[in-house]
Amino acid sequence: MVESDTIVLLILSFSALLIIISAIHRYARHFIIPGVTIMMFLGAISALLPAAVGTDFEDIYDILEERLSDLILLVIIPILIFESGRKLRLGEIKKEALPIGFFAIIGVIITIFIIGLGISISFDIPFIHALLFGTILAATDPVAVGAIFKKFPIPHRLNLILEGESLFNDATGVISFNVVSAIVFSGVIFSLAETSVSFLWSMLGAIGLGIVIGWLGGIILNKWNADEHVDFTFSIALAIGGYVVGEHFLHVSGVVTTLFTAMLLLVKHKEIIRETRTLFNKYWDYTGFITNSFLFFLIGIPLLNLEPSLFSTYGLLIFIAPFIIMMASRAIVVCGGSKLLSFFRVTIPLKWRNILTLGGLRGGISVALVLSIPFGYEFKELFVAMIIPLIAINLILNPVLLNRYLSKSKSI
Asked: What is the DSSP letter of 302?
């Protein structure tokens, strides 16, 4: 039971965090490094609070760390996916279905094996365990990608490929994580047939579920002829509820479910008047901003709770090797995939390939997956120690390189 003094302290801390978010949004908008990266480091600093102010925060931080993966995957991610999905159009997705599909499916599988091989060699761990790390790191994060690329003016088609890939490759990454987890923790024998069926069900089932939820939701809102408050509240319920139903009851991709829910809801809900639609979008813009800030703040919390012995054992290797392996795998997939896609008359210019490579960002989904690994697993601490610094480096270095590259490129 949390005492009243602790609750008061927590509320004051929450108020202070909102002020900090406001200040960062105000003053960091022109920084090369995005505000969400600053929020991540503030999350790490906040982990010092229990030691600084006594035991009041210890229980809260213990509960938060224990349930962090659920909070990220079940609440924050669906809200942010819906916020991104409402801007996409099915017609645009269909035009770029080939490159999006390649990078989101085949590209993720290739990435898993490259990262697995590199980590296995670098840290001398069994290949199947290194593959598990590969599944955690394979999929680009739609939230991180969306947050970074709002700062850079790039062609609409390229932005669509980047966001489309990051929104759809979640299914491939999570299914791969579940398959390898079953092999590692349960001794299940890998079956290509069962895995293929599971993947098809996860994708096609999620698309079908999202279409049904969005379509029915649009019909209901049309009948209600409601204002923007009802539209917004109802859409939040569909975003989170659809995600949970998909992931935990039907075992399909929650991200894809929420994505298609968002697109179909706005397609079907045609009765929404222009003024109401404008306010509805403003509400979702704000929700995306504040939820995104909280996400990256939460990502930072595990940073200062890592085992120091891991860093003394592996030294700089723990910071350098995963990042180099991840970027190399991304470059191989983007360059090789672009060459392959050219045979199907899909052109991805060289400058676009460089941006796609630098835009392969990781974020909250990787953190949630690594934290969901059972306690007592022999490599969990090592994986956490690699993932968190890697994301920090990824979100600092890549925006700087992107800014430099885009500044020097006369045309994209």
From this structure: G
Q: Which residues of 318-334 are buried (b: 16+ CB within 10 A; e: fewer)?
A: bbebbbebbbebbbebb
Q: In 10 A of CB 311, how many CB atoms? A: 15
Residue that the structure tokens 């995306």 belong to: 288
Residues 209-226 have pLDDT tens digits of 999 999 999 999 888 887
Token couple for 232 = 């917004």
Residue 239: exposure state from Cβ atoms within 10 A (0-12, 13-18, ≥19)? buried
Q: How far apart are CA 363 and CA 145, in angstroms?
A: 9
Q: Name the 3-class secondary structure at 363.
A: coil
Q: Is 366 exposed, middle or buried (0-12, 13-18, 19+ CB in 10 A)?
A: buried
- Both ends of the chain: CA-CA distance in Å? 56
Residue 26: both structure tokens together:
């105000």
Q: Strand, helix or coil at 347?
A: coil
User: Cα–Cα distance between 144 and 294 in angstroms, integer?
Assistant: 13
For 314-355, how does the pLDDT look when each residue is reduced to its tens digit (9 = 90+)? 888 998 999 999 999 999 999 999 999 999 999 999 999 999
The whole-model pTM stands at: 0.86
Q: CA 380 to CA 190: how far, in whole Å?
A: 22
Cα–Cα dist 234/264, whole Å: 14
Cβ-count burial 180-198 (b if 16+ within 10 Å, e if not): bbebbeeeeeeeeeeeeeb
CA–CA separation, 179 and 197 (whole Å): 12
Give the C-alpha separation, 299 to 305, whole Å: 12
280/231 Cα distance (integer angstroms): 7
Please give the Cα distance from 144 to 358 (Å, whole number): 12
Q: 121 vs 93, 124, 347, 359, 405, CA distance in Å?
A: 38, 5, 35, 26, 32
Tell me phi and psi for residue 328, to 5 degrees.
Answer: -65, -45
